[in-house]
Amino acid sequence: MSEAGDSVTSERDARDSAKAAFTNRYIRLRDGLAEKGIGARIADDVKGTAKAAAKEAVEIAVENKGVIAATVGALVVWVLRKPLLDQAQKWAPRIPAAFRDMAGAVSDRFFGEGDDDQENNA
Fold first, then answer.
1. What is the three-class DSSP state of 52?
2. Suppose 1 and one of 5, 19, 62, 118 were both cysteines; which one would form an S-S bond, judging by CB atoms 3.0 to 4.6 Å apart?
3. Helix (H) or strand (E) holding 10
């Protein structure tokens, strides 16, 4: 056979080999999708990722119970801030005058204008 004939034959063999490989891959993909669709595969992947994240979150929570308790407490106070502030305003007139004077003195000491502190420290 001539060189051209050998070339055509080798190219045909390469083509047939590539076609067979493609057909095999296509059949495996088609059969796999027939067993379980893309949506189900994605759902399984999402479920697996969510379970892993939840497991890790539980492990972290067990190790840091104080942080979790403080966070939950802060969230509860934040959610109930309006009723808590309303109750505080109702109770404010009942506070004894002495306690208010003491609180005022402490407030002035720590949160006052600061001019007296600068003079005392100089």
1. helix
2. 5
3. helix 3-35
Q: Which residue has the tokens 């095999």?
A: 24
Pure H helices in 36-122: 38-63, 65-79, 81-91, 97-111, 115-121
pLDDT digits (tens, 9 = 90+) for 57-69: 999 889 999 988 9
Q: Token pair 């080798």 is at which residue?
A: 10
Residue appearing with tokens 């992947």: 45
**What are the CA-CA distances from residue 47 to residues 7, 20, 51, 84, 112 (Å)?**
53, 36, 6, 40, 57
CB 31 within 8 A of CB 24: no
Sorted by sequence, the CB contacts under 8 Å of residue 54 that are 6+ apart come out as none
| CA-derived radius of gyration, the chain | 38
Longest CA pairwise span in the chain (Å): 118
Summarize pLDDT for 83-122 with one digit per residue, the tens. 988 888 887 777 776 676 777 788 888 877 555 544 555 4
